[in-house]
UniProtKB/TrEMBL annotation:
Protein name: Glycosyltransferase subfamily 4-like N-terminal domain-containing protein
GO MF annotations, alphabetized: glycosyltransferase activity
Pfam families, per the entry: Glyco_trans_1_4, Glyco_trans_4_2
InterPro entries (alphabetical): Glyco_trans_4-like_N
Location of the Glycosyltransferase subfamily 4-like N-terminal domain: 11-147
The species this protein was found in: Rhodoplanes elegans
Length: 384
């Protein structure tokens, strides 16, 4: 590989899945390239490898790291692989995205002598959100490893919501000077033209990876209650594919059963989300997963949709209760149904919510704003 000019900084993104890099970080990488960085992407190469290469970014295949890996020897080999990548490509800055790359990448960066590290936690994930025995066992160990890794010089960690910032400082012990709050990965409002023009009968959508923690079953149960009540005519739709390899993925056969039963339609993965959201009345996300800020809720607000979500970290960063949507106590299916039904029965109210949501995105979550904030963090870690 040719060495960059002496005045050019080499920036490496580290993320487990190539599709996630394309969907959430590609605009940032383009902006970094345009700002003069040489951009490299280390990820597990699959369907989006050519998309990344066409951007002119150097691509490095992560063969060892898996999101759901638990075998100790495999996990050590993933750290060793990153050490080798860092020593070979000698990045000036590494940008780790999500919990495992943050933890393993920070260890590897210290061993390999990487000078500047930016960590990006899009939520605290399974370990800090789940009540399962496995999560409770892993949590203390992760805490002990994270604090020293994230408190190193020239290391800054981005969190996406104020709840996660409190956990990082109070429960994990990360010093506030090493934390930065940036609200999500941003969306381009121009992709969601206004005014919002929903179709009839009203369309209520849940768009996400099809995993149980996203509240799929609660959405189906709420839709069933509303169908039985028969007060409103509407269509309920699930959008997204099963997350292959995730232990909480909903099998395709189960999703097809929902579709056949006729209460909730399953449309699978779609690439035309701006057009679907432009026609939707309500976007619902009863997630209990430890997310930063769910991107679909930012997209929904940008499109002028009213939102119904569970009152959890991340969701309440984009949804102001009663302003641009309704927040419901987690697990309250009757409350979820009532919130959806109330908005379906009040078109002017949900239209006003949609307008306020769009204004909120333009002021706080626009892609240009998020990109500029992140580039400033790169410059801060390099420093004088």
């Amino acid at each position: 590989m040719l060495k960059p000019p002496s005045n050019q900084q080499r920036l490496m993104f580290v993320v487990t899945e190539d599709w996630y890099f394309v969907s959430h970080r590609l605009p940032l990488a383009r902006a970094a390239r345009d700002a003069g960085y040489e951009v490299l992407v280390a990820t597990r190469l699959a369907d989006k490898a050519e998309t990344i290469r066409r951007e002119g970014f150097a691509v490095i295949d992560l063969t060892k790291m898996r999101r759901t890996g638990r075998n100790p020897f495999s996990e050590l080999s993933a750290i060793a692989e990153l050490v080798g990548i860092y020593r070979t490509h000698r990045p000036d800055i590494v940008h780790h995205i999500a919990m495992k790359p943050v933890l393993y990448g920070s260890m590897a960066a210290r061993i390999a002598g990487v000078r500047s590290v930016v960590n990006n936690l899009a939520g605290l994930g399974f370990v800090f959100s789940s009540r399962s025995l496995k999560a409770r066992v892993l949590r203390p160990a992760i805490r002990r490893l994270l604090a020293p890794a994230l408190n190193r010089p020239r290391t800054l960690t981005i969190v996406q919501n104020s709840d996660d910032a409190r956990v990082m400082t109070d429960a994990i012990g990360v010093e506030p000077a090493h934390l930065r709050l940036i609200k999500g990965s941003g969306v381009d409002p121009s992709l969601y033209p206004m005014p919002h023009r929903e179709e009839a009968p009203p369309l209520v959508v849940l768009a996400s990876r099809m995993i149980r923690d996203k509240g799929i079953a609660d959405f189906v149960a709420a839709a069933t209650q509303l169908r039985r009540a028969g007060d409103v005519e509407t269509r309920f739709v699930l959008l997204g594919s099963p997350d292959v390899g995730n232990p909480h993925a909903i099998p395709e056969a189960e999703l097809q059963t929902y579709d056949r039963d006729g209460v909730v339609a399953w449309w699978g993965h779609r690439d035309d989300m701006p057009e679907i959201l432009a026609r939707s009345a309500i976007v619902c996300l009863p997630t209990t997963y430890g997310e930063g800020i769910p991107r679909i809720l930012i997209e929904a607000a940008a499109a002028g949709c009213a939102i119904v979500a569970y009152d959890v970290a991340g969701c309440r960063e984009i949804v102001a209760h009663g302003d641009n949507g309704v927040l419901v106590r987690p697990g309250d299916i009757a409350g979820l149904a009532a919130a959806i039904g109330g908005l379906l029965a009040a078109p002017p109210r949900r239209a006003a919510m949609g307008q306020r949501g769009r204004a909120r995105v333009e002021a706080e979550f626009a892609q240009d704003r998020i990109v500029a904030q992140t580039l400033a963090i790169y410059a801060e870690t390099v420093g004088p």
